[in-house]
Amino acid sequence: MLAASSIELIGNTPLIALSRVHDGPGRIVAKAEFLQPGGSVKDRAAKAILLAARADGRLAPGMPVIEMTSGNMGAGLAVACAALGHPLVVTMSAGNSPARARMLEGLGAEVVLVPQVDGAPGQVTGADVEAAARVAAALARERGGFYVDQFNAVECIAAHETGTGREILEQVGAPVDGWVAAVGTGCTFMGVARALKAASAATLCAAVEPLGCEVLAGEPVTKARHLIQGTSYGAVPPHWDPSLMDLSIAVTDDEAQQWRRLLAVREGLYVGYSAAANACAAAKLLRSGRLPADATVATVLCDTGLKY
């Protein structure tokens, strides 16, 4: 296939069996979203939002695009904006990894770092994200730009239902027994869950949350700071559909670090902390006894480890 632009490279990522970090019971299969041109699963959402906004007139040709990001959505937007001809301005909590800001600047984005409210370097809280979002909204008003507002953009859910979820079903060749994914905006989890549950109502869908920040499980937040950047900000996402979540699986910072190293040295997959948390949670689900011994659990390797 000859792609006309980088935006056409988004989607249709490979599905890989993680048989070297989990040798049973069952098997873990993971979407290699770190192979997207922007390096993460957020490329799908960025493409969906911008194309929808251009189609309905919210985003005029050449108009600036402005968004708050932890890094991944910003990179996806940078790829799409370059292909579509829009300047990009992103606001980011200063607590996110410096490598993310450098990557965004390398892709041509203007990066505005926002001081942390109550987080720490490498540990971004919900208050930190809210502060960065307020700056982004203000910049959009000042510059007459299109404010992406990813947490409230419903296009993202549909992109994963018709894209990621459909791809998993086609690549496995059958319904899967389980689906696990960390939750930031919730769009990846919900969109894929809709597709998988439509194929088989028996598919068990588990949200992945950092231990101590399990709001989807209904638990009080006792540890707002955690290593799994881009997820679990201590609040339920705006469009969250609790009917799609069958259970929540908690992962500790230590487990995320351990699994990140395991994925690198055993599978040759250098990915981020959310990807590691997903793989860890998938193994926990398979070992829980809630699924058959030969079950297949699908997950997503959210982003490349080069951003950390």
UniProtKB/TrEMBL annotation:
Q: Which GO terms describe its biological process?
A: cysteine biosynthetic process from serine
Instruction: Give the residue spans that cross the bilayer.
Output: none
Does the keyword field hold Nucleotide-binding? no
Required co-factors: pyridoxal 5'-phosphate
Among Pfam families, the record links this protein to: PALP
Q: Does the keyword Calcium apply?
A: no
What Gene3D superfamilies does the record point to?
3.40.50.1100
Secretion signal span: none
Q: Which domain of life is it from?
A: Bacteria
Q: Name one GO molecular function term.
A: cysteine synthase activity
Q: Give the source lineage, highest ranks first.
A: Bacteria, Pseudomonadati, Pseudomonadota, Betaproteobacteria, Burkholderiales
Report keywords, A-Z.
Answer: Pyridoxal phosphate, Transferase
Which gene carries the instructions for this protein? cysK
Q: Which InterPro entries match?
A: Cys_Synth/Cystath_Beta-Synth, P-phosphate_BS, TrpB-like_PALP, TrpB-like_PALP_sf
- Domain (Tryptophan synthase beta chain-like PALP): residue spans on this chain: 9-303
The protein here is known as: Cysteine synthase
